[in-house]
Specification:
Low-confidence stretches: none
Helix content: 25-40%
Radius of gyration: 24 Å
Mean pLDDT: 94
Number of helices: 11
Shape: globular
Number of strands: 21
Structural class: alpha/beta
Strand content: 15-25%
Largest sheet: 9 strands, mixed
Distance between the termini: 19 Å
C-alpha cells in the first residue's frame, strides 16, 4: 500500500501506463472513437516514444517496412527510406501526439511502482514515483491500462573482475550522449538486431571492433532503398494507392517465411559471398537451428563490415574482465576500452506491478496457468478493469507490432467502452474463457517451430511460449469482436 504521506492525485476514469506506440494509440482512440478526455498517461521517460526513445544507439532503425509500421488512422507517406530510422519514428509519433493533443494528458518522468485493486469501491489505487524528485503520489482510477510493452529493460551483465575493469560498460539502449569511441578498442557483445545496427555505425571511428557472439544467427543482407520524393508525393495525393501499397506490403511480409523459409539457408550463404564475407567467418554465421526458431536478423550493412581489417567476429562467451580487456571462456584476451552490451532484454516475463482481487499478483496467477499469459493478450481473471496492450502472445517475429497493438486496443475499447463511460463498474474476463484461450495458444505454439531446436526469448526456460501469436496476424482482425459469454460485466452501483 502507498505511504500515508504520499500526494493524493485527483481521480481519473482511465489511467494508461506507457507513452510509446501502445499508449499513444490508446490515447488517440479514446479521443477519436469515444470523444473521451478523462484519462492520464504516465511514462518514466521525459518524452513520448517508448522503445523508440529508449533505444538511442547509432543506427537504430525499424526492421519492418515503414509503409506498415504506422498507425492506421495516422498515415505517413513521407518516410525517406523503406525502413525508417529512429529520428523519423520519433518525429512521426510527436506529430501524431500533437494532432490529437495527447501531450496534455501525459505525465513524464514518472515510474509505476504498484497498483492495488479495491474490491469494495471497484477502483485501482496506483502508487507512482517522480524520477526527478522522488515524490510518491497515489492515483485512483476505474480503468487501468498497461501499455509498457514487453522487452523494456536491458539484460544485466556480470562477470568476475567487473569491479576492477577500468573501461566503460555501456548498454546500447542507454547510449550516453556525446560518447566518443574514436581510436578505442571496442567489444560488442551479442549478434541480434541491435548489434548488427550498431557495428556499421561505430566501425569507422574505432581502433578495433571485436564482436563476441554466443552462437550464430540467421542473418540476411537487406538493403534500405531511398523512397523518391515524387513517389512519396504520388501516394500522398492518391490515398487509395497508399492503402493498396500497405496491403501488398503486409501480405509480402506475411508470406515471406511460408514461401521462402526453406531457402533461407541458401539465401544466407549467398549473401556471405555477395557481401565479401571472409571464409573464416562463414561457419560463425551459419547456425544449425531451423530458420524461424529465433527471429531472423535483417541487416542493411553489417555483413559488409566483416571484411574490414578493424573488425573481428568471435564465437565465444565473456568469462571475466581484465583491467582493459575481456577474457573469453576459451582463454582469449581481447583488448577492451569500451564494452557495448547488445545482448538483449529481460524477456522471461512481463512487468505488471499489480495486486488483484485477494492480493493475487500476476506471477502467482501465471504459476497456476503455467506461464505468462492473458486472454487475447489483454485480460486476466482476478484483475478486474485491468487491460494490457502488447501482453503475452501478442507479438510476431516478422510482422509489424503496430498491427497487434491496434487490434488489442480495438478489443479493449469494445469490451470496456461502457466501463470507460461509467455505465458499468466492472469488466473482467471469465476464468474458463481465459484458460481455454491459453490452452489453445500453447497447443498452437507447440505445433510451431519457435524455440524447437534453439534457445530463444520467445520461450521461457520451462518451455512456455509467452511471446508469439501462433496464427496468422490476419486473424487479429476478429479479436475486436466481443464474445459476451467470455466476460463478467457488473452494472454501475456507486461512483468513485
Amino acid at each position: 500500500m502507498a505511504s500515508e504521506k504520499a500526494q493524493r492525485l485527483p481521480f481519473k476514469q482511465v489511467v494508461i501506463v506507457g507513452a510509446g506506440l501502445a499508449g499513444l494509440d490508446m490515447g488517440c482512440e479514446l479521443k477519436r472513437k469515444h470523444n473521451f478526455h478523462d484519462f492520464v498517461i504516465y511514462d518514466r521517460n521525459p518524452a513520448i516514444g517508448g522503445t523508440w526513445y529508449d533505444n538511442n544507439y547509432p543506427g537504430c532503425a525499424v526492421d519492418i517496412p515503414g509503409f506498415i509500421y504506422q498507425l492506421s488512422f495516422a498515415p505517413e507517406q513521407n518516410f525517406s527510406h523503406i525502413f525508417p530510422d529512429r529520428a523519423q519514428m520519433l518525429d512521426y509519433m510527436e506529430r501524431v501526439a500533437h494532432k490529437y493533443r495527447i501531450h496534455e494528458h501525459v505525465r513524464y518522468n514518472t515510474n509505476w511502482v504498484s497498483s492495488t485493486w479495491q474490491e469494495d469501491r471497484k477502483v485501482w489505487t496506483i502508487e507512482l514515483r517522480c524520477l526527478k524528485t522522488g515524490v510518491v503520489s497515489v492515483q485512483e482510477c476505474r480503468v487501468l491500462i498497461g501499455a509498457i510493452g514487453h522487452q523494456v529493460d536491458p539484460k544485466p551483465f556480470d562477470a568476475p573482475g567487473k569491479a576492477e575493469f577500468k573501461g566503460e560498460i555501456i548498454s546500447a539502449c542507454k547510449w550516453p550522449e556525446g560518447l566518443d569511441l574514436t581510436d578505442k578498442n571496442v567489444v560488442v557483445l551479442g549478434n541480434g538486431s541491435t548489434a548488427v545496427q550498431v557495428v556499421p555505425n561505430v566501425l569507422d571511428k574505432v581502433k578495433k571492433c571485436t564482436q563476441i557472439q554466443r552462437a550464430p544467427q540467421w542473418i540476411l543482407n537487406r538493403p534500405n532503398p531511398y523512397v523518391p520524393k515524387a513517389f512519396r508525393k504520388f501516394i500522398t495525393v492518391v490515398p487509395f494507392m497508399f492503402r493498396l501499397l500497405q496491403s501488398l506490403t503486409f501480405a509480402i511480409v506475411e508470406l515471406f517465411y511460408p514461401i521462402l523459409g526453406r531457402t533461407i539457408p541458401s539465401m544466407a550463404r549467398r549473401d556471405l559471398k555477395t557481401c565479401g564475407v571472409p571464409e573464416k567467418y562463414h561457419s560463425s554465421l551459419i547456425p544449425s537451428f531451423t530458420p524461424g526458431c529465433k527471429r531472423i536478423i535483417f541487416a542493411p550493412e553489417y555483413l559488409q563490415c566483416l571484411k574490414n581489417p578493424k573488425f573481428d567476429l568471435v564465437t565465444d562467451e565473456i568469462a571475466s574482465f581484465g583491467e582493459r580487456s575481456v577474457v573469453t571462456h576459451s582463454g582469449r584476451e581481447v583488448p577492451c576500452d569500451t564494452l557495448l552490451l547488445c545482448h538483449g532484454f529481460q524477456a522471461e516475463t512481463f512487468y505488471y506491478p499489480l495486486k488483484g482481487r485477494s492480493g493475487v499478483t500476476p506471477p502467482e496467477h501465471w504459476d497456476v496457468a503455467g506461464g505468462p499469459s492473458c486472454y487475447k493478450g489483454c485480460a486476466m481473471n482476478g484483475f478486474p478493469n485491468f487491460f494490457s496492450i502488447r501482453g503475452p502472445n501478442v507479438s510476431s517475429g516478422h510482422q509489424s507490432l503496430i498491427h497487434f497493438i491496434e487490434s488489442t486496443t480495438a478489443l479493449i475499447l469494445n469490451v470496456a467502452g461502457p466501463l470507460i463511460q461509467g455505465r458499468v463498474d466492472v469488466v473482467e474476463v471469465e476464468s474458463e474463457a481465459e484458460q481455454s484461450y491459453i490452452r489453445r495458444v500453447q497447443a498452437a505454439c507447440k505445433r510451431g517451430f519457435w524455440g524447437r531446436d534453439c534457445h530463444t526469448f520467445y520461450v521461457t526456460r520451462k518451455g512456455w511460449n509467452h511471446t508469439v501469436y501462433p496464427w496468422t496476424p490476419y486473424w487479429l482482425y476478429f479479436h475486436r469482436f466481443v464474445v459476451k459469454s467470455h466476460w463478467i460485466v457488473k452494472p454501475s452501483q456507486t461512483k468513485a
